[in-house]
UniProtKB/TrEMBL annotation:
Stated name of the protein: Histidine phosphatase family protein
SMART domains per record: PGAM
Gene3D superfamilies recorded: Phosphoglycerate mutase-like
Example of a GO MF term: phosphatase activity
PANTHER family membership: BROAD-SPECIFICITY PHOSPHATASE YOR283W-RELATED, HISTIDINE PHOSPHATASE FAMILY PROTEIN-RELATED
Listed InterPro entries: His_Pase_superF_clade-1, His_PPase_superfam, PGM_Phosphatase
Active site: 8 (tele-phosphohistidine intermediate), 82 (proton donor/acceptor)
Amino acid sequence: MQIIVIRHGQSEADITGVHEGRADFPLTSLGTEQARSMAHYLAEQLPPELILTSPLKRAKKTAEILQEQIGCELIEESDLMEWNNGVLAGISKGEAAVKYPLPEGGRPYHVPIEKGESELYLRFRAERVFHNIITNHKNLERVAVVSHGGLISNFIKAFIKQPNDDQTIFPTGDTGIHLLEANDESRIVRFLNNQRHLKNKHLQI
């Protein structure tokens, strides 16, 4: 089975300097263009048989644009939402630094942010999504997942079986695509953060 993991296009939060997370900002007009370019690329190169998406606006709209191009089923999956950043959602990064500074030495991995979740629980959700895919959709050859940077990084860590507290981060740009392959014998990373579909300079950040 191939799993195509896709980050949403540019959102309004990306250009306003606020913490996003669970704050539900829509795509910008540029983000919509990026999603259309990504959808066209996947329709030609790697069309999925099923799309799973986070229900947050920026991801769901990206997934809907892909679905329009491909014509396959789309399913919302709440576990694909971004890290629940609690009190930080939607506030400026400057305000957050004053009102909710990180504890000295950083927040422990297992400790949730106020009104949110811990990094450990985010990893748990990513693990759950991955195992649900390979269990419930094992009859499919290719599944697309549309999500968010933090969840995607943890999904890749789950896929390659990194330890829970490993500090490695797998960044994803706007509509960046990762191609992973799982079979009975191995797990293969075909490519990471492919943005070649954003070949027009006006689509790049």
